[in-house]
Amino acid sequence: MKQASNIWKHYAVGVCYYPEQWPETLWAQDLARMQKAGIGTVRVGEFAWVLLEPKEGEYHFDLFDRFLDLCAKVGMQVIFGTPTATPPAWLTEAYPEVLNARPDGILLRHGARRHYNYNAPAYQRLCAAIVEQLGRHYGQHPAIVGWQIDNELNCETDEFYSAADDAAFRRFLQAQYGSLQALNDAWGTVVWSQCYTDWSQIYTPRPVLNGGHNPGLLLDYRRFVSDSCIRFAGMQADILRRYVKPGDFLTTNGLFFLDNHRLMDRALDVYTYDSYPDFALELDKARDELLDRKWSKNLTETRSVCPHFGIMEQQSGAGGWVNRMEMPSPRPGQLRLWAMQSVAHGADFVSFFRWRTAPFGTELYWHGILDYDNRDNRKLREVEAFGRDLAAMDEVCGADFVASFALVKDYDNEFDCRADRWHDRIARHSEREIILAAQLSHTPYDVLYLRDETDPEALAKYPVLLYPHPMIMTERRAALLEAYVAQGGILIVGCRAGFKDIHGRAPMLVQPGLLRKLTGTEVEEFTYVNQLEGEQRYLPVFHDVLTPLAGTQVLARFEQGYYAGKPCLTQRQTGKGMTLHLGSAFSREMVTRLLAYAGVLEPFDGDLSAPEEVELVCRETNGARYYIALNYPDRPASLTLRRPMQNLLTGQTEEGDLTLPPFGVAVWKAE
Amino acid sequence: MKQASNIWKHYAVGVCYYPEQWPETLWAQDLARMQKAGIGTVRVGEFAWVLLEPKEGEYHFDLFDRFLDLCAKVGMQVIFGTPTATPPAWLTEAYPEVLNARPDGILLRHGARRHYNYNAPAYQRLCAAIVEQLGRHYGQHPAIVGWQIDNELNCETDEFYSAADDAAFRRFLQAQYGSLQALNDAWGTVVWSQCYTDWSQIYTPRPVLNGGHNPGLLLDYRRFVSDSCIRFAGMQADILRRYVKPGDFLTTNGLFFLDNHRLMDRALDVYTYDSYPDFALELDKARDELLDRKWSKNLTETRSVCPHFGIMEQQSGAGGWVNRMEMPSPRPGQLRLWAMQSVAHGADFVSFFRWRTAPFGTELYWHGILDYDNRDNRKLREVEAFGRDLAAMDEVCGADFVASFALVKDYDNEFDCRADRWHDRIARHSEREIILAAQLSHTPYDVLYLRDETDPEALAKYPVLLYPHPMIMTERRAALLEAYVAQGGILIVGCRAGFKDIHGRAPMLVQPGLLRKLTGTEVEEFTYVNQLEGEQRYLPVFHDVLTPLAGTQVLARFEQGYYAGKPCLTQRQTGKGMTLHLGSAFSREMVTRLLAYAGVLEPFDGDLSAPEEVELVCRETNGARYYIALNYPDRPASLTLRRPMQNLLTGQTEEGDLTLPPFGVAVWKAE
Amino acid sequence: MKQASNIWKHYAVGVCYYPEQWPETLWAQDLARMQKAGIGTVRVGEFAWVLLEPKEGEYHFDLFDRFLDLCAKVGMQVIFGTPTATPPAWLTEAYPEVLNARPDGILLRHGARRHYNYNAPAYQRLCAAIVEQLGRHYGQHPAIVGWQIDNELNCETDEFYSAADDAAFRRFLQAQYGSLQALNDAWGTVVWSQCYTDWSQIYTPRPVLNGGHNPGLLLDYRRFVSDSCIRFAGMQADILRRYVKPGDFLTTNGLFFLDNHRLMDRALDVYTYDSYPDFALELDKARDELLDRKWSKNLTETRSVCPHFGIMEQQSGAGGWVNRMEMPSPRPGQLRLWAMQSVAHGADFVSFFRWRTAPFGTELYWHGILDYDNRDNRKLREVEAFGRDLAAMDEVCGADFVASFALVKDYDNEFDCRADRWHDRIARHSEREIILAAQLSHTPYDVLYLRDETDPEALAKYPVLLYPHPMIMTERRAALLEAYVAQGGILIVGCRAGFKDIHGRAPMLVQPGLLRKLTGTEVEEFTYVNQLEGEQRYLPVFHDVLTPLAGTQVLARFEQGYYAGKPCLTQRQTGKGMTLHLGSAFSREMVTRLLAYAGVLEPFDGDLSAPEEVELVCRETNGARYYIALNYPDRPASLTLRRPMQNLLTGQTEEGDLTLPPFGVAVWKAE
User: Which among A536, A634, B183, C407 would be 20 to 30 A from C358, CA to CA?
Assistant: First the structure.
């Protein structure tokens, strides 16, 4: 894996700005107010295609020329976004083949955003042209410090069904399989007489009765969409790299459903996430237990792609579109809390979305720092205070995140969840419970994706790997895990492990298949846990009834049903380490016990303690430890520091019992 | 506003009849039974196109000739409906471009009704031809007393997406904006690179990702649909007016989502509503608190269009289609109660739907007065008794409705609710609560639409105007309101007032924008009230935190949340009147208090009192007051008359405590 | 009705097998393990089209030649399925007109199964060709004992909207009506100007506003789909009969929504059902009270088509597709319980689905006897034990099912439920309650379909006929019922009887129309029972208020509402029998009382008693009675034998109190 260099040496604050949406007479005032509030960078341009090229091949740079020159003059840094997320109406009218489509072939039209597909040659040509023009025109501009490719790739939808996608899907499959025979074998098309006898018979998923698509096709379709997206971004990156100044970075924003690690390797210098925790408080929406704190999960995912990342869009006001999504305004303190959540998890740059709320358009209710009336307000004051906080804690910038364990994933299994509802139900349940257990017990974790490039060192960093349901398992990954355990690691796996091969097929192996050697178990029976059987609090969703092989120790047994008394949890030694095999999905309670059993629960308990509702993060650098405490609820929280530590935000040294205010944040240095 | 003349000098009863659905041998008997039951008018013809023109250009009038001649002979009056709501199969096969379409372009086909669009030139030509033929043939027929244009315009759907609509939408926009620059400005297409560079790029809303259409487009689309419908009706009216006898009226029926006031002005002599309160009792349907009494809201809306109106279709039996809608039969007394509800609110003519239940077709379960078996039944007896009631109270015909206040609306804000869910959520909540408060406290109201034609006198009639959420505000309307307050009126507005301009954009003004002078307030912050914050019983949904300007009095303050202690209700004097500004949506409790504060709550309390579940209506003419009491539940209600009044239905003079039976109605004259 | 001959003289066990899905090296081992487990028949071929004909007109029989020869060699019998349920990709690419379509015309594509329509000439030609080839090639093969036509006709969908269906629908209607005038009359197209003036104007139901199709069209559409399916199967049967060996049978599997009796008469020698009771335990699914026991309803329906039938697919493991349906594994004993449920209701042949779970494809989770790992398991042991049970009770094979009453149905009313939601709501409620009452009171019933071919003897077999809601009634059926009652039968009918004619129109008759003479009642009023009126436990959903004619006895009266005191249940003598008329839908309580009143409740009470949760079935042959008891819950059940009986499964004679284990089954012989 390409390890992202630390782009930002010091914490930095930015904002998203749309010079094209405002009278030019406001620009200078806006920039001056930003700078007063500590904002040193603006992101611009990502939705401005029709202004830059109002007619095919006719480029107009004057508006952005004037704005960037002004930025250069006043010392404001600029990140320029390529505008390819929103092709203009002239383009989609002239080239309707660039549009995305529904599975039934109905085109998705101009009028919202992201209505294009990645594979239409016409779109690739037109995007290459505008990116080339932008690179050539602004690549050397002194105000520019970085480039954003497109905007939120795979947002709005990650499904593509245009004719161009059909053609590209066939090419993708030809490259992957070489022959139709290999494809038919991989997908098991012999079932239901589905064998393909010509490549032209293959399409992206079209309407079929009861959605009964072949799962092999669905799995490869997810790989194809990811690949299409990465090729599209890579094409832009290749062009931009010919023009950008030394030191200027390439990024993209958001984190959507694709192989983001490969996107990073292929096209980017640094990853920037868009963090909107107010989604948790959306009206009419079912509540997740972690609410806004759940965004720490997304930040952890981002950190797995890029350990020191940026936030391109940090929520600064209520979110909403005119037709959906209704969020309350962040309360006083929440804006700063959410920004600090990003910083705690590894963001070195925080750019707020957006300077001032749009006065028109679908995002009329996606509120910025300033409201429609343009007056100074509490949000602006909070941004300014946040900037002062960052300055006070600048020594934390670039410090390492301290994780007790790694939650292991891979894209094959992630993609398979979209093809397989049985897989998804188990995996989704376990992931929610694992994160809940880790968060509430103050046991921080990293996410570790097993990739072709992953080496044993990447695993060995963690004393414990929790790989909940590696249904798809490969020889290479099994070997990586064996090496990990052998050198002393503790591996925990749950039900259905090793049940599928790389194509999503079930090989004729006793489960857990390729992991049987490590777990020292055989799965005798397996079943969904029927909801009629009463609460399955500790062993939820699905059961693998385990038979221990010789030398495998039974830690727990099922207590209910026809397999009561049979093992549900086993332990197997391999080399210096061991493997725990749980014949179930994971419950919060079980995860807590397993982490305790593995000796990694609550690692900071010696230094400080906090109630469940406070998130504790630890960062480490040059021998110094930094604790960051984030209090999410609208009520005070009581913490205890077990030794004196310096509060970087106040400069005070603190010890013993203390109180965090509602939405409060503290950063302590423990040397 | 064209004030509708009083078409009916005396109360009249009618019925909907379909001579084409029955053996001709039944006609004479049916008419005789109708007349025996007090029915003097039949509405015919509105679904008979294929009989009148079974082949393009080939007209057959013989069936209706025979029927109308029979009517003339027996003295039955006829309202003839133009049959354009249901184009025949031959027509839609020959001219598929006349069909309406789904947003994805799939045509909506022959087989139900209202499957046409208003804008196809072929449809306009064919409709003009059949209407011309009908006018010419029956215009002078002695049985005819009026004409109904089409049937329930904009019922079934008020969305149109055909190619003809696309073309007409472009013409509508060209006429409205003149230039694309003006349109792009109005819609804010600079957001998301949506700028149109050619008129041909504009369409009615087509499929886009996540429904994220531009709200300016959606708002103008609603105006366009309304305009299309009115032009279509106007075209028919222009033709008919060339042929109708003096004194015969033009109307249409139902009340659907369009600018009904403009429809009235453009095309009609009188409005007739279709009243189906049994919808409230439909199976599997969520219950509204007011149940069938809620139809008083619709009748109030109808009264705002046309103070003395008719009912073209008054429910006489259970409603239902074979594929949806399942209603119980009205209980004994309910048919009369519902008809009296119409009369109480201003109907001078009540035509029941329908004489006898259809024995086939989609409306097999839309029951008429007579059942399938054609026997005399209790419903027929109830219709007859209702006719006698009307005769006994005929002096009330044409009397004015006495309203304590006006609920103010305008079509810009109504239409914006369909474009903007945030708007709709607030407006819908408040309207429901306002109506509930007014109904349960016996505080009758009118609805007053602010239109280009509205003059200050229209407002000055009311001591109190409640304009809950005029999000869109214009200079002209603000001036009207200022004049109203200055002359002594009390204006009440709620949250989000003055936040948008005529295109739905948020101008850079301190809210409530153009109303700030009247309210004497500034909105400091605003937010949805998150459901997590506990019950917001008195101040629901959305909060505007108010800052009073000098001279503005604070009446109440928020009690919860981070803005506790800040004003939520203010009062500002302007001239002889005042403005109350509520920083919230309206709750029933708040409305009741505000009406009491304004001195208009329970205006009839000196004359009589009734329990909440009884609706009280007051009508006034020539110095006489008439009270109408309607008891909706299936249980008796106790009322008290504080002075002697004559019960017109019984002829008795009553005073003191008395009891209304279940579903009972009383009409008292109080001189 | 063609009475199916008893195909199987002795109980037989089979399994579904897919030789094409496994390495040929496994075949011999698989067959040997099957035979060891008592399996003597395999069903093959039904999804193998692309292997048999990988290219149009190019047939490859080698794979199945090798497999069938092996079967012949080891003595395994083979049922061969024609592969027409899954046309290959080459076929649908070359002939897209063979595809089924959505109502909006969007084609349903290759990639799942059953994506074809029955009416495309190209498909009929290609199916005829492959069936002809198979018949010619395998008709005389010694391993073959029977043929399955297609697979689960009308499964996945029973709606067809392709252009080929439009054309065929027109031909079907022309044959039925002769003239458009007759069709227009039958459908009542005079309503809403729907009259057809050319056959080409008629289509299968296409998109219309609010789904408001003409119900006459919908009713005939259901008849058309049924007819299309039967013609398609008949075409295959005609071909196969030219080639099959004497004694080999033709069948099809499953039981879906069509006139299965006519299908049987037209094309089959025996019916085979696919029984999957685990659907009752599917996750996220609302629970029916009878759970897996509800499959007895389906088996009863199958018995009505074919008294001695087979099970082609008997559930042997958890069911599921990758995209939907999630079932827990059957528990130990359930597999045998469910197979015995089939046998108890008349199955003489039980073929399990499937030998081993598919390792790929959409049905990855449709588990077979063997799991992915191919080890012996408890399911295989249970199949083997079930085979031994069958051998022990072989004398029951071919015995008659003993029914206390018949639940009467006809396809006109069944089809009308799909056209008419009012009909469906009432009929569905009553059927559920009737089955519940019969099951829980151990009062077994048959289902009797009234058909053109039904003669009085078919009715006279039953002392009681319960014909819950014959809304559509014909002269012929009324006469059949009169003859039945006259000879001593008891007929029970519920609300809405006789309300419609054969086209679904309401004739101008006093209800119950053609049944009025039998019931001796007139329906005075009718209404849905509004849910607001409180629990209608005994008289649910819909009320017909009855007026008894002279000579009719009133058994019960309504107790609530405005018709309290009016009759709700009457009795009328005709000849030696009587008719009970209930003015309501049926409740479980009412059904129990009516069956008791008719003297048929709990007919086996003298021989044995069982708790509600145990199903009791009685079979009779040669003067011997056999009782089969099935215990569905996961807990023991206490029964009492009132006289000594021989338990055929254990060989023991038992009497008095005894216990059935969880999921237990017993078979007693009572001579």
Answer: A536
pLDDT value at A1 more than 50: no
Mean pLDDT over each residue of chain C, to the nearest integer: 97
> Worst-scoring range by mean pLDDT, B513-522, C555-564, C591-600?
C555-564
What pLDDT was estimated at residue B419? 96
Using 50, 70 and 90 to split pLDDT, how confident is the model at C622? confident
DSSP letter at A532 equals G
The predicted structure's pLDDT at residue B287: 86
Q: Could you tell me which chain A residue has the CA closest to the CA of B561? A: A331
Percent of chain C with pLDDT over 90: 96
Using a cut of 0.90, tell me whether the model's pTM lies above it. yes
The predicted complex's ipTM stands at: 0.96
| Beta-bridge mates of residue C272 | C253, C310
How many whole angstroms separate alpha carbon B172 and alpha carbon B230? 13
Q: How much is the average pLDDT of B447-454? A: 97
* Beta carbons within 8 Å of A171's beta carbon, 6+ residues apart: none
How many beta-carbon pairs under 8 angstroms link A with C?
A: 183
CA distances from A505 to A185, A496, A585, B229 (A): 10, 13, 21, 58
What is the average pLDDT across C334-349? 98
Q: Is the pLDDT of residue B5 over 60?
A: no
Task: Answer for the pair B398, B621: CB distance below 8 angstroms, yes or no.
Answer: yes
Contact B667, B649 (CB under 8 A): yes
- Paired tokens of C69: 């020869």
**Cβ-proximal residues to A436 (8 Å cutoff; 6+ apart), any chain:** A289, A290, A588
CA distances from C75 to A121, C39, C245, C355 (A): 60, 11, 17, 17
Q: Which long-range contacts (CB under 8 A, 24 or more apart) does A356-360 make?
A: A356/A22, A356/A30, A357/A317, A357/B506, A358/A18, A358/A21, A358/B188, A358/B191, A359/A21, A359/B188, A359/B505, A359/B506, A359/B507, A359/B508, A360/B187, A360/B188, A360/B191, A360/B215, A360/B216, A360/B503, A360/B504, A360/B505, A360/B506
Count how many pairs of residues, chain A against chain B, have C-beta atoms within 8 Å: 181
Percent of chain A with pLDDT over 70: 99
DSSP state of C623: T
SS3 label, residue A358: coil
Inter-chain CB proximity C329 and A503 less than 8 Å: no
| Beta bridge partner(s), residue C467 | C493
Length of chain A: 671
Instruction: Say what the pLDDT of residue C531 is.
Output: 60
Query: Residue B329 and residue C531: Cβ atoms within 8 Å?
Result: no
Packed helices C378-392 and C334-344: angle between N→C axes, nearest 10 degrees: 30
Residue B339 has phi, psi (to 5 degrees) of: -65, -40
CB neighbours of A130 closer than 8 A, spacing ≥ 6? Answer: A49, A52, A53, A59, A82, A83, A84
Q: How many CB atoms lie within 10 A of CB C247?
A: 9
Nearest CA in chain A to C96: A201
Structure tokens, A622? 């040059």
| Active-site residue, selected from the candidate residues B152, B282, B431, B615 | B152
Measuring CA to CA, which residue among C61, C113, C21 is closest to residue A190? C21
CB atoms inside a 10 Å sphere around CB C412: 23
pLDDT surpassing 80 at residue A522: yes
State how far Cα B52 lies from the chain centre.
Answer: 31
Measured CA to CA, the distance from residue C45 to residue C235 in angstroms comes to 19
Average pLDDT, stretch A638-651? 97
> B: neighbours with 3+ CB pairs under 8 Å?
A, C
Residues in chain B within 8 Å Cβ distance of A86? 192-194
CB C47 within 8 A of CB C74: no
Give pLDDT, residue B534. Answer: 59
Residues 6+ apart with CB under 8 A from B415: B219, B222, B223, B226
Over B37-75, what HEC string results? Answer: CCCCEEEECCCCHHHHCCECCECCCHHHHHHHHHHHHHC
